[in-house]
Amino acid sequence: QSALTQPASVSGSPGQSTTISCTGTSSDVGSFNLVSWYQQHPGKAPKLMISEVTHRPSGVSNRFSGSKSANTAFLTISGLQTEDEADYYCSSYATGSTWVFGGGTRLTVL
Amino acid sequence: EVQLLESGGGLVQPGGSLRLSCAASGFTFSTFAMTWVRQAPGKGLEWVSGISKRSDGITDYADVVKGRFTISRDNSANKVYLQMDSLRAEDTAVYYCAKALYGATPFYYGVDVWGQGTTVTVSS
After folding, report:
1. Of A35, B31, B102, B111, which residue is 20 to 30 A from B3 by alpha carbon distance?
2. C-alpha count within 13 angstroms, C-beta hemisphere, residue B26
3. Per residue in A22-54, pLDDT tens?
4. pLDDT at position A3
5. How far is A90 from chain B (nearest CA, A)?
6. Which residues of chain A are within 8 Å of residue B63 when distances are taken between CB atoms?
């Protein structure tokens, strides 16, 4: 059950767009459309931002979008706002009825 | 309001046991799969275990806890539990319970409600 690979940090200026990648394998991201993304502010519980690669739950800003290509999933945040500054984690179902997370990406809004 | 409230964390010696509880309210508990996710100090999220919606439901475990942790649920009490035995220092973390996004689907489709977490510290 290897963790998914995310960049440790990304940054962007207010109003810009940024994309966070999440690389897995053919045993997880590449074979299942079951990638989710979570936002976590310091000291808080995670919040679901995207499920099933592209689905945005009710109440989540349409500035957040998800996509996937081969073994890599992406979270794109457009129109960056200061409140977007947080840690972001991807997750995926993996063969063998397991669930794996990425190592997390710290987003800094400069 | 949909809510999850974890309890049962604390300080335990290596080799010891703890039982975490998660009380659910504001939704039909018996129709949703549930899961436990932990976060070690300063580290990322790590999936621990999950259980399907039935009280005798299908259970899954991360390899690192398999054989030591047991997940269960009581749909009449709207609670999910995590029995943790043979605890190790590396089990030290905040433990969150979380609710599956959709009824009748496994938790790995996404989880949309999280508790505030309960802290487990394994140390002598």
Report:
1. A35
2. 10
3. 999 999 999 999 999 999 999 999 999 999 999
4. 87
5. 9
6. 1, 98
List pLDDT tens digits, range B30-47: 999 999 999 999 999 999
Contacts of A73 in chain B (CB under 8 A): none
CA A96 to chain centre: 22
Residues of chain B falling short of pLDDT 70:
none
Given an 8 Å threshold on Cβ–Cβ distance, is A52 in contact with B114? no
User: Partners of B22 in the beta sheet?
Assistant: B6, B80
Distance CA A78, CA B24 (A): 35
Of B60, B110, B114, the CB nearest to A36: B110
Dihedral sign for Cα atoms in the order B20, B26, B31, B33: negative
β-sheet bridge partners, residue A84: none
Q: SS3 of A43, please?
A: coil
